[in-house]
Automatic annotation (TrEMBL):
Signal peptide (residue range): 1-22
The species this protein was found in: Oceanococcus atlanticus
Region of interest (Disordered), residue spans: 269-288
InterPro entries given in the database record: DUF1329
Entry keywords, A to Z: Signal
Short name of any one Pfam family annotated for the protein: DUF1329
Lineage: Bacteria, Pseudomonadati, Pseudomonadota, Gammaproteobacteria, Chromatiales
Protein name as catalogued: Outer membrane lipoprotein-sorting protein
Amino acid sequence: MSRYASLITLLIMALTPLSTYAKVSAEEAARLGKDLTPLGGTRAANADGSIPEWTGGYVMARAPAPDAQRLPRTFSDITTDRPLFVITRDNLDEYRDMLSQGHLRLFEMYGDTYKMPVYPTRRTGAAPEYIYEGTRQNALKAEMTNFGESIENGAIGVPFPIPSHPQEIMWNHKTRFRGASLKRYNAQIVVQTNGDFIAHRLREDVRFSWSMPNAKPEDLNGVMAYFLQLTMAPPRSAGQVLLVHETLDQQENVRRAWLYNPGQRRTRRAPNVAYDNPGSGSDGLRTNDQLDVFNGATDRYNWKLVGKREIIAPYNGYKLIDNRLDYDDIIRADHPDQDLMRYEKIRVWVVESDIRRGTSHLYKQRRFYVDEDTWTIVMVDIYDARDDLWRFQEYHQVLLPWTQSVGPAGHMIYDFNSRRYLAMEMMNEEPLFEFVTIGEEHFRPANVRSVATRR
């Protein structure tokens, strides 16, 4: 019977377009900016007030002086907060129901040193008005097709602010507002069991075409983002360039990627920059689809929308992003210095993925926790083929109040088998990011070699 049931399910999927999960009615869309935030989160406080009402997010009229943009004193109304409480191994049972499986495993393995300082919840999420307006239009027009692998009739803002399908939530994460065009510098740090580490320093040029002011679906040429990554250090990897054109159709117009190898002085197509192929400079601690927590196609999994949950998660990591800290001040054996971390009680969408029969991936199952205010995936529990918890991702986001865009303060991937971890998107010792206009021509494959040689 199970075989026949599976065949019937596949037939229904083949005959039912996923666009039926997308557009909402005008009455539903009218909730945006009223009982829902302009991006689709629940505006009201929770029952006991521990999660407050959203009142517009954290907005600053203009950027502070360049030297102050990553210093906590710039955000004094947040960073002067004191922890409400600190979760330790001794009081863990009081908070167990509000923690991810990954955090519970960290306490199990490293409870002598691991702790979670929990602060008042600050609903800082915000975006520019044109992103809000684009989101309102998307709610009425955007469609998800090709079994969740494509977006049509959408641009600017969140495509599915009132989601009814798990892959819509994944698209919301992939298209969330992170600025329109920028140049940023960051480090990917492989941490060994004794605390020794090597930092891979990167420069990344990004054009989020989807988020450009006045972007229109017909003008995107099927590409939502352009990404160029130049490795600056260590010396053995310096000069390597990865170029990616991230498409809006992950099935028929798949991701286009190229790699430039400075030793060979050649640019080659790189079809393996996807799925569970190992990410560069990670010493095998992450897969390609774990960059930015999750990216790329979703077609190797069956997806399930579990629903909303109140949970304690990394949030508002302004202390962690402080550029007065060196990496030596942050990195420790087993886990970073937890005194620099900030956790808050927030509402998240919970989405689960299980490997689809006939496909393959290193990760059999993943559970994603997605912030309702920014659509950022803040945590992921990752299971292996034996259904054992293998890895855990923890994304510490910040909102840059003068741009109203979200970005990373740090992204940790813990490997429970090897007892090592990867600290990604760290910027403390790196040059300050720049919001600059970068044209599409910069991301042509023919331009890759000149980028590498100009570094």
